């Protein structure tokens, strides 16, 4: 079999990005962090002072925005209309608003169509919430990666050097975003029927990566 696509979905902080990046590197595939795209649009909404309730202005802005994901040294460099926003899209303020922006149907339609074309040539490892269910329903490998909310908060906490938020606040933020992501009307967060469930609460990063690579080997 030639190249295939890998869809990696799951709730916030489950380790999807790290796992997806490592799996992509191992396979020599392209890694696409779709959460970064929703964060990029959220950053622009706030940066341009577009009122959060002005859905048509947000939709128009999204339609005319250029988002580029470039492979970086430690992760992905995110450009919005040529401007590097890699660091800025990880702020507390973006975390607070991103799930509201991601629930706007026009925003999703536009970003999903970009994501589909990024994966059209295959050889992509894509992480997000709706990859296996709606962006790449035909992905050859589908994984739903989860872990307890506490464990996910602990991992995020360790990742953040500047502790601008406490562990308890992080856990609350993660649970709040999960609720919004699971409850929204358009392509909510859920496990695709044909996705393999991996609960990483008691697994190391290497164990998770190896489990995903094992699934990939059955497709090679
Ligand atoms: O993956 P990350 O935590 O960076 O995603 C940020 C937010 O973007 C999620 O909480 C979710 O609201 C939204 N998102 C989405 N669909 C995706 C990826 C992310 O709705 N495929």
From TrEMBL:
Keywords: Kinase, Transferase. Its EC number is 2.7.4.25. The keyword Kinase applies. It is an enzyme of class 2 (transferase). The keyword Transferase applies. This is (D)CMP kinase. It comes from Paenibacillus mesotrionivorans.
């Amino acid at each position: 079999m030639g190249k295939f696509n890998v869809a990696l979905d799951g709730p916030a902080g489950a380790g999807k990005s790290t796992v997806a990046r490592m799996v992509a590197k191992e396979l020599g595939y392209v890694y696409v962090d779709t959460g970064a795209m929703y964060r990029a649009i959220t950053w622009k909404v706030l940066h341009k002072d577009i009122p959060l309730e002005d859905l048509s202005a947000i939709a128009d802005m999204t339609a005319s925005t250029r988002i580029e994901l470039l492979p970086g040294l430690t992760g992905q460099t995110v450009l919005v209309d040529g401007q590097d926003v890699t660091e800025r899209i990880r702020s507390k303020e973006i975390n607070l608003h991103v799930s509201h922006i991601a629930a706007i149907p026009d925003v999703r339609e536009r970003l999903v169509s970009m994501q589909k074309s990024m994966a059209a040539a295959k050889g992509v490892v894509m992480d997000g919430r709706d990859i296996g269910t709606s962006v790449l329903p035909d992905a050859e490998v589908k994984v739903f990666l989860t872990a307890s909310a506490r464990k996910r908060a602990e991992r995020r906490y360790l990742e953040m050097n500047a502790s601008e938020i406490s562990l308890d606040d992080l856990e609350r933020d993660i649970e709040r975003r999960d609720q919004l992501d699971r409850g929204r009307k358009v392509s909510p967060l859920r496990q695709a029927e044909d996705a393999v469930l991996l609960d990483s609460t008691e697994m190391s990063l290497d164990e998770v990566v190896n489990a995903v690579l094992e699934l990939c080997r059955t497709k090679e």
